[in-house]
Amino acid sequence: MAAQRIDPHTLWHPETGGAGRRVAETLRLYGPRTRAELVHLSGLSRPTVSSALADLGGADLVSEQVGAAAKPVGGRPASVVRLTRRAGIAVGVDVGRRHVRVALADLGHAVLTERQSRTDFDIDDRPREALDLGTTLVDAALHGIGATRADVVGVGLGVPAPITRDWRIGSPGMLPGWADVLPADELTARLSLPVRVDNDANLAALGEYVWGAGRGCADLVYVKLATGIGAGIVLDGRLYRGAAGTAGELGHVTLDARGPVCRCGNRGCVELSVGGRALLSHARLSHPDLTDLAGLITLAQAGDPGCRRLLADAGTQLGYALGNLVNLINPQRVLLGDELGAATDILREPLQRGLAETAFTAAAASVEVVQSALSLRAAALGGVALALGVDTVPFAAASPTL
Question: What family, per the record (predicted)?
Fold first, then answer.
C-alpha cells in the first residue's frame, strides 16, 4: 500500500486526525522514542504505528536513528524515532524583571538556539515594552536559524507573577503594571501565533523536568531564588497548578505573623528574608557599591563573612518554609535555581538544617537538595516545553531513551 501523503503545514491543525497525527503528537509530547514505546504511549497497534511512521517519514517529518536507544530491545540495538525540524518549531519566552530570554527547539525536543537581552527598565511597570522586546528576540532567533514564524507551532510565555487558569494575573497587586494585561493575548497579537502563558517558576520546573536536573524525577519542587521567591511543583509526573492555577507562591508563605508587611499585603513572608531585594538591602550596609545578587554571591564565595552569613541565614529560613511543603507533598528532589541558585553550595547545609527542624524525619531524609542544571535558562526552556504540551502528560513515567 502506498504511503499516505501528509502535509506538514496541516499536521497540527485541530481537524487533522488519523494515526499519523496521533504518533506525531506522541513524539511531540514525549520526545524521541523507540517503536515499542510509541506503541505503548500512543495506544495504537504495532502495525498501525509502523504504517504511520512510513507516512510521516515519506513527508520527511520523522527520522530514525538505529542503535540510539539507551536500552536495546532483545539482542539487536533498538532504533529511536524523532520528529524532524520540518515538523515545526516550539518557542519559549521568559519575561523577567530585568531581562527577556527566548529559546527555540524543534518538535523532537532538540534545542536549536537561544537569545537574551537585559532591559534598562523594570518590566513591572512596562509590560508592553517587555513583550515588544520578546517579539523582537523571537524574530531574531528565527532568522538566525533560517526559519520564519510560519514554522512555529506554538509559544510558551513565562511571567514573574501568579497566573490563573484563565491566563490572567492572579495577584495584580504584586505586578500592578500588568493588572489589566492579558499576557498571552498581547503576545499573540504581536506574533500572530498561538501562545500559552504560565508563571515563570512553573516553567522553570518544567524546563528542569524535561532537560535538566529533574529528568526522570516524578515528584520535585523547583525553587526560584531571585528578586522574588517562587516554586514550581511537579507531582506524579505532572506540573501542579492548583485549583485557581496559582500554586507554588512559596515567597509569600508567612514565617513571622508579626513581621514587616510584604508587597503582597501579608506580614513576615519568606521573600522578606530570602528574596534578592532583602538580601541586597542588608548587604549594602557594608558594601554600598553592590549592584546585584551575582556580586553578593561572589563576595560570599570569596569568604566575606557578612555575605556568607546573609546567605546562610536565608538558607535556614528557606528550609523552614520548605519543611512545611516537604511534609505536605513529600518530593524526591528540591532544585535551587535562578540567580541565587549559583549559591547552592552555601545555601544547602543551612537549608537542610531548617528542613530537619520542620519536616518529618523520613521526608527530610528522603529529599535531595540540588542545584538547577539549566540556571538562568530554565524558564525559557520551560516555555518551549509548554509550547510542546509536555505539561499535559506524565512525562517522567515514560523513561526517556535519549
Answer: Belongs to the ROK (NagC/XylR) family.
Instruction: Fill in the amino acid letter for 98.
Output: R
Cβ atoms < 10 Å from Cβ of 43: 11
At residue 401 the predicted structure's pLDDT band, cuts being 50, 70 and 90, is very low
- In this model, does residue 385 exceed pLDDT 70? yes
pLDDT in tens, 227-281: 889 999 999 999 999 999 999 999 999 999 999 999 888 999 999 999 999 999 9
**Sign of the alpha-carbon torsion through 321, 323, 328, 334:** positive
- Provide CB contacts within 8 A for 341, sequence distance 6+: 225, 335, 371, 372, 375
User: 62 by DSSP, 3-state: which?
Assistant: strand
If we measure between CA atoms, which residue out of 23, 339, 336 comes closest to residue 205? 336
- Which amino acid, 281? S
Per-residue model confidence (pLDDT) at position 5: 66
Work out the number of other CB atoms within 10 angstroms of the CB of residue 153.
18
Element (H, E) at 33: strand 33-34
CA-nearest of 39, 105, 367, 75 to 223 is 367
More confident residue, 78 or 79: 79
Residue-wise pLDDT for 169-228, tens only, equals 988 777 888 888 999 999 999 999 999 999 999 999 999 999 999 999 999 999 999 988
Measured over all CA atoms, what is the biggest interatomic distance in the chain, rounded to whole angstroms? 77
- Whether 328 contacts 322, CB under 8 Å: no
Residue 247 half-sphere exposure, CB side, CA atoms within 13 Å? 17
The cell numbers describing 377, all together, are: 535558562
Whole-number Å distance between alpha carbons of 146 and 127: 29
